[in-house]
Each structure stands twice: as C-alpha cells, then as structure tokens.
Design brief:
- There is one protein chain.
- With about 550 residues, the protein is α/β, with parallel strands linked by helices.
- The protein is about 20% helix and about 25% strand.
- It has 12 helices and 31 strands.
- The strands form 9 sheets. An 8-stranded parallel sheet has the order 20-19-18-17-14-11-10-23. Strands 24-25-26-31-28-29 form a 6-stranded antiparallel sheet, with helices on one face. A 4-stranded mixed sheet has the order 2-9-8-5, with no helix packed on it.
- The chain is globular and about 80 Å long.
- The relative contact order is 0.11.
Length: about 550
C-alpha cells in the first residue's frame, strides 16, 4: 500500500467515523475504507483546452419575461478574463468581470446576442439566441445532484462544496450550472407559509441559494406528492390541515424527522392524503431563490403533475420542473406540456448492466417526445466517485471501466439527455474532468435542434446511432456492446448522405480525413467502448448536379 493510499484511507476513516458518531441512524455507524481513485490518465482522449478564450455551451437560452434571469457565459481559457455582450434584452445587465448576465427581461422576443470573452492572449466571439417567451430549458440542463453520492446524508456543507468545485474545476466554463438537493433536506412545516422547513443540516438554505447565484450557478430542491418521500421525510400531502405528520408527532424518527425505518416501513408513507401544501411550498421555494424542483413519485399521475405545475407557475419565478421516476409513456403529452424533463427509468447504478440497459433498451420509445423545453431524462450520471450515502456504500470510484464511462457520456449526449452529475466533485481527477469538459462532445448534447438519435445498425453486439445537428453535420456514435474488440464502421450513403464526408473524432478533437459517400469507413472499438465522429458537410448543402445515387 502506497503512502498516498494510507493517507487517503486514514483521512477517510477519521471523517466517516466522526460523521457516524453524529448520526441518529443506526445504519450510519458502519465505517468503510475509501478506495483511492484509479489512475486513468492513460485513457484521456480530450486535449486540454487552449489558454486563449473559447466560449462553450449552448447557442440558445430561454427565460420568461419579468422573471429573474441568470446566465453565466461558459468560457474556458486563462484568467483573468473579461466579457462583453451586444444586443441584450432590456432589463438585463452583464458583469464584465464574472460573465454573469442577470436582471429581468422586460419584453418577450427573440434576441441575437453577441458574446465576447477576452484575456491577455486573445478573444473569442459567439452568438447566443436568447428567447424570452414561455419556454425554459431550450437545451438539456447540466449540473450536479446529491443522491448518487450523499443519499439522505446531504448537507448544506456538501452542497456548497460541490458548487465551489464546479467553479474550481472549470465545469461552469462548459455550461454546468445546477446544484440540486435530492431527498434529505426536509424537516417540519413552519414559517410564514407553513411550508417544509430545512433540517439542521441546512442552517441557512437561503444563504446557500445566494452563494450559488453569486457564482452564476443555480439551486435545485426536491419533494414528492405523497404523505412521505422515498427516504421517509414529509411530503406535499397530509392527513390533517395543520400539516402535522404522525411519525414526527409520535417521535418515530431521527433528529431530522426522517421516519425510523426499523419501526415503520417507508412504503406505508407512499400514499396520497386529502390535504395539500403545494402552493405553500412553492411560495417558500421561490422566496429562497430555488431554480429547479425535482418531484418524485411512482406511478406519475396527471392530477399531481398539474397541481405542482400550477403552484410553481403561480410564484412568478422560473423554476424548472423535473418529474421522477419511471414516467409512463401514456402520460407523455402531459409531461411535455407541464414539465421540462422527466425520468424515463428507475434509479441508475454504476455498473455496465444498469447503464447499458438504460442507454440501449429504455430510450428509443421516447424518441418522438424529445424537443427543446421537453427532455426525457435517462437519470443522473454515475461517473466519478459515487456511493448513495455512507450507510449503504462508501463513496468510491465508479465501477464502470474507462471505456464504459466514455459510452455513458457519449450516449447521454447523443440522447440530448440532461447531464446531471451524481459524484463527489471534490474527488474529481484529470480523467473525470476530461470526460466532462470536451466542448465538441457537449455540443452534441446541447445542440439547439434537440433531436433524438436514430439507431441505424446493430445486432446485439454493437449499435450505431446517428444524430443530425443544427449546423448540418451528423454525429455518428458506434458502440461496441460485446466483451471483445470489434471493427465497426459505416458507408455514408447508407446513412442517407450523398457527398464526400470529412470525419472528425469528437473525443480526440482530431480530423481523421475524408471518405467518399459510397466508401466504407471503419475503426476498432474497445469492449463496451465507443467511437464518436462527426461527418461534414452531412446532408446536401449545395446545388446537386448530375447523377447522385
């Protein structure tokens, strides 16, 4: 065992033992050895970003008129850096030092804004289409959520540390912006709205939101329509109008008023009660500055979906509405109308069986329902160090191999899926950062068309997906689903293309040459791995002449 390993595991043992001593849950007393992050530096494909400015991220952003506006220009490059923006809607102002655009846009409309980022080495310019109207999330959200790492043990300290890490790692320079609390923040009802109040792990939840906003990040929260949530905290309905919950009144709970699961089964709380508190909670969330709300129950139903939607809209604050989990296809029209994203599956886990099943077996059915402002959600990502709370597992490196991690990130981007991280970002290594900050790969996810990929080829041992992009190019992802290396390729004409194509490896950000539209191109793909290329010009972009077949 190396000195570094001894230090890491010793510090982890001390920290986790201290945390266990402060816990009221008997399952929190188990202490795990923290496994060091493997050295995957040999698997890094993405070149380091240049020191010169480069504006990344989506080319379109949506907000409602009169609502609080917050957008941080995602630009990589050496700091200090200054920013400018021409053509902003009235009511919005740019902080030239931070690149944060804030305020309230007064008038609905579509605005072509020219962004510029400058440092001592040069400058970069990019057009951003700001649509002030009725739609949010014109591209899939990017950020972090707490459950896959901290589970029910999430605290304000954890959330602030993740927000700080997003900035220090430079993830905000690529569009990652949300810091979302999952289950575990709740206490009792109180305050001026008789809304759910935070437990002692969150001494200043408004201060947490303000801290994130000051860094150009956004704040998310969690609830569910039942009497109790999945973890055993209070929910949006109750059996009495005062909002007093019986397991709290009877003391069958821990100090955070989470139900004692050794005394009462959690699923006894998974029912609807007659008294509703959605409006009270939505008002409180708006006052705290919440930007994103995850609503979690199964099976999802029309009544609960619409009731919370109306409560959120009544606040006048733009709060992204995320539905979880395992959304039924028969509810698709309602989901598209009332929510910005919805979970298509149950909970993901950090193994090939879970990730590949979600990626290749569960998403095609939702292809016709994906579009700007409405995103099928394949669940939080299981890259980096995950654990689901210290009493279930140690927070340790994902069990996915490097190639499986490339497949995970690639397929989520091909799907235009939300890129919500679930790992401990304070333990991020160079390999993880390289996975998360490839601007050309992220651009496939954030493409403003928001199209679904089409599976063009496959036989159970491999799958080739094709996705048309707004610039006319075509992304082609070739996945090896087998346990052995495999040659995978395509003939452009078989993809519907009728011109000679330039091929660019998006992960390596490297041009690979060109191929005639009737010529086969192939490459060897590692087991459970992927090759992601972009073809240009893609479809016909000029006047066709002569015979093209």
């Amino acid at each position: 065992m190396s000195i570094k390993h001894i230090v890491l595991t010793s510090l982890a043992f001390i920290a986790m033992s201290a945390a266990a001593q402060n816990s009221d849950d008997p399952r929190d007393v188990t202490v795990f050895e923290q496994v060091p992050v493997p050295d995957y530096s040999a698997y890094i494909l993405t070149p380091k970003a240049p020191a010169t400015p480069r504006i990344n991220g989506a080319r379109v952003y949506g907000q409602r008129p009169g609502a609080d506006f917050l957008f941080k220009i995602p630009a990589s490059g050496e700091r200090p850096m200054t920013f400018s923006a021409k053509g902003l809607p009235k009511g919005l102002k740019l902080d030239a030092k931070t690149g944060i655009i804030a305020g309230k846009a007064r008038k609905a409309g579509v605005y072509d804004v020219v962004l510029t980022a400058t440092n001592s080495l040069g400058s970069d310019t990019k057009h951003l289409r700001i649509e002030i109207g009725d739609k949010l999330l014109l591209t899939p959200p990017m950020g972090w959520s707490s459950w896959n790492c901290f589970g029910n043990t999430i605290s304000q300290e954890h959330a602030m540390a993740m927000g700080k890490a997003i900035v220090e790692l430079g993830l905000d320079q690529y569009g990652y912006s949300y810091v979302n609390l999952d289950d575990g923040w709740q206490y009792d009802r109180g305050g001026k709205y008789n809304a759910i109040m935070p437990n002692s792990k969150f001494p200043d939840i408004k201060g947490l939101a303000d801290y994130l906003h000051s860094n150009g990040l956004k704040f998310g929260i969690y609830s569910g329509p039942w009497l109790g949530t999945y973890a055993g905290h209070i929910g949006e309905t109750c059996d009495n109008p005062e909002g007093k919950y019986w397991w709290v009144e009877q003391g069958i709970c821990d100090k955070h008023h989470k139900i004692d699961r050794d005394a009462v089964k959690r699923d006894s709380l998974w029912r609807f009660e007659p008294y509703h508190f959605e409006e009270a909670d939505a008002k409180q969330w708006a006052e705290w500055g919440v930007d994103y709300m995850k609503y979690d129950w199964n099976p999802n139903d029309h009544y609960s979906l619409v009731r919370m939607y109306e409560a959120l809209r009544s606040t006048g604050r733009d709060i992204v509405y995320s539905i979880s989990n395992s959304a039924p296809l028969v509810l698709a029209a309602d989901l598209m109308k009332y929510a910005q994203l919805w979970r298509t599956t149950g909970d993901i886990r950090d193994n090939w069986k879970s990730v590949s099943d979600i990626a290749f077996n569960r998403q095609d059915v939702w292809a016709g329902y994906r579009r700007p402002g409405a995103w099928p959600d394949a669940d939080m990502m299981v890259l980096g160090c995950v654990g689901w709370g210290k009493y279930e597992h140690a927070i340790n490196p994902t069990h996915l191999t490097p190639d499986e991690q490339y497949t995970h990130m690639t397929m989520w981007c091909m799907l235009s899926a939300p890129l919500i991280l679930g790992c401990d970002l304070t333990r991020a290594d160079d390999f993880l950062v390289s996975l998360l900050t490839n601007d050309e790969v992220i651009a496939v996810d954030q493409d403003e068309l928001g199209l679904s990929p089409a599976k063009r080829y496959g036989d159970g041992t491999y799958a080739t997906y094709v996705k048309c992009l707004a610039d006319g190019g075509v992304a082609v992802a070739m996945f090896n689903l087998s346990d052995e290396p495999k040659k995978i390729g395509f003939v452009p004409h078989g993809l519907g293309l009728t011109e000679r194509q330039e091929i660019r490896d998006l992960w390596r950000q490297k041009d690979l040459g060109s191929v005639d539209f009737k010529e086969r191109w192939e490459t060897e793909v590692a087991p459970h791995g992927v090759c992601l290329v972009k073809l240009t010009p893609g479809y016909i972009n000029g006047k066709p002449q002569g015979k093209i077949r």
